């Protein structure tokens, strides 16, 4: 049986994390639709950006175990995915002169994080 060296283990872990990142970039099945007022767009984007930066800072700090690091990294990818969705939906709404709000489709993970960061009023 062939022995795996430390370098090979690191290389394999880097490959697995790369695959996880690709998976986390993909949105799941739509579970909720959230309507955001055009006037609230900037506040939502700012709040998401702040949260992403805060979590990134935690990732760069020492003392976090691998499991915690992966969970935080996953949440960051979900937040980045959500920020892209909001930006795209707002751009589409901005093309309409009469637009006062826009709708963002979210999967379960996106909605969970969004609703914890930004107060959501249920319809």
Per-chain topology:
Elements: H1 6-24, E1 32-37, H2 41-60, H3 66-94, E2 101-106, H4 108-117
Antiparallel strand pairs: 1-2
Helix pairs in contact: 2-3, 3-4
Structure write-up:
- There is one protein chain.
- This protein has 123 residues and is mainly alpha-helical.
- The protein is built from 4 helices and 2 strands.
- The chain has a two-stranded antiparallel ribbon.
- α3 crosses α4.
- The chain is elongated, with a radius of gyration of 18 Å.
- The protein starts with 5 loop residues before the first helix and ends in a 6-residue tail after the last helix.
Order of helices and strands: HEHHEH
Shape: elongated
Query: Major β-sheet, in short?
Result: 2 strands, antiparallel
Radius of gyration: 18 Å
Helical run tally: 4
How much is the average pLDDT? 87
Query: What spatial order of strands do you see in the largest sheet?
Result: 1-2
Give start-end ranges of low-pLDDT stretches. Answer: none
The total beta strand count reads: 2
Q: Pairing-aware structural class of the strands and helices?
A: mainly alpha
Q: Please report the distance between the alpha carbons of the first and last residues.
A: 61 Å
- The proportion of residues in beta strands is 5-15%
